Amino acid sequence: MRASRITQFASALEVPVHFFFESVSDVTDLPDELIAMLSDSKNAEMILLFDRIEDAVVRDTILETARSYHRVRNNSATAISDRA
Fold first, then answer.
1. How buried is 17 (Cβ within 10 angstroms: 0-12 exposed, 13-18 middle, 19+ buried)?
2. Claim: this prediction has a pTM higher than 0.70
3. How far, in whole angstroms, is CA 16 from its chain's centroid?
4. pLDDT score recorded for residue 57
5. Average pLDDT per 10 consecutive residues for the chain, totaling 84 residues
């Protein structure tokens, strides 16, 4: 069963996602927010692909690019709200 489907069941039953994995101790230790994020297929794919990159320099470059994007995105949102 796909993770997105499990997330839908959890939402419909109003239970946390890890409810379905209580017998798996590693999963129940994760915050619901992280489990929900990982249930998104694009997020999961990105993590799996990133994990397969063997070159540490390439991994560091990708991570720094993501951090830079996040900083620019947050700063521009802050700057816009400061003007209002």
1. buried
2. no
3. 16
4. 96
5. 74 77 59 79 86 93 94 71 46
Distance, in Å, from the CA atom of 42 to the CA atom of 71, rounded to the nearest integer, reads: 21
Distance between CA atoms of 47 and 1, rounded to whole angstroms?
19
Are 17 and 28 spatial neighbours (Cβ–Cβ below 8 Å)?
Answer: no
User: Could you give the CA distance from residue 41 to residue 39 in angstroms, rounded to a whole number?
Assistant: 6
Report how far residue 39's alpha carbon sits from residue 6's, in angstroms, rounded to the nearest whole number.
8
Q: Whole-angstrom Cα distance, residue 17 to residue 22?
A: 10
Summarize the chain as % helix, strand, coil (round to 5): 80, 0, 20
The amino acid at residue 62 is I
